[in-house]
């Protein structure tokens, strides 16, 4: 290997290492957010204000990671002028960072509702919807991150399908809680906290779907942000 080839080899190794680093750090940030979502759900169900406050304290770390990792992506773009596939990876990571940060914000809102509900005196009734939807979107977050780690577009499609199921569960829970409020007006303040927590969990599911869409873009090079599930499935099947 001559000096020129050796230099190119070193540059390539540095570039690959930088790409691996930002991907790894993004997935680590995802693990933190996944724990925030699970802890926020647990805090709400148990009215554990200490755990809820811990969720909120974690938001500063998530915000700092988003800024730091996004800065690394910007530096790579500026210095390396990556080819198409590597460019897709960097852009996808940057977009996932934004979705993860917003998930952390929504987990914080669930935690806030837990604290307010504890101050109001507790859950107005059994709200297993929170536990069920919280577990569901938690699994979506985990699977979306796994799909990214594995570059698995079929797993990403499954996450998108789960988002539709969460939307249906959310609609059913909302109707049930509104009916409960109408039957017992004394419960309105408490039930509103439940409704807002459910809304935040539903939004976390939306962001998990966004990550799934970024995976499909990364793997297939196709923008499926406004595609329905059948169109997404066709894209995965037909794209090279």
From TrEMBL:
<feature type="domain" description="PhoU">
    <location>
        <begin position="130"/>
        <end position="215"/>
    </location>
</feature>
<protein>
    <recommendedName>
        <fullName>Phosphate-specific transport system accessory protein PhoU</fullName>
    </recommendedName>
</protein>
<comment type="function">
    <text>Plays a role in the regulation of phosphate uptake.</text>
</comment>
<comment type="subunit">
    <text>Homodimer.</text>
</comment>
<dbReference type="GO" id="GO:0006817">
    <property type="term" value="P:phosphate ion transport"/>
</dbReference>
<dbReference type="GO" id="GO:0005737">
    <property type="term" value="C:cytoplasm"/>
</dbReference>
<dbReference type="GO" id="GO:0030643">
    <property type="term" value="P:intracellular phosphate ion homeostasis"/>
</dbReference>
<dbReference type="InterPro" id="IPR028366">
    <property type="entry name" value="PhoU"/>
</dbReference>
<keyword id="KW-0592">Phosphate transport</keyword>
<comment type="similarity">
    <text>Belongs to the PhoU family.</text>
</comment>
<dbReference type="InterPro" id="IPR026022">
    <property type="entry name" value="PhoU_dom"/>
</dbReference>
<dbReference type="GO" id="GO:0045936">
    <property type="term" value="P:negative regulation of phosphate metabolic process"/>
</dbReference>
<dbReference type="Pfam" id="PF01895">
    <property type="entry name" value="PhoU"/>
</dbReference>
<dbReference type="InterPro" id="IPR038078">
    <property type="entry name" value="PhoU-like_sf"/>
</dbReference>
<keyword id="KW-0813">Transport</keyword>
<feature type="domain" description="PhoU">
    <location>
        <begin position="27"/>
        <end position="113"/>
    </location>
</feature>
<keyword id="KW-0963">Cytoplasm</keyword>
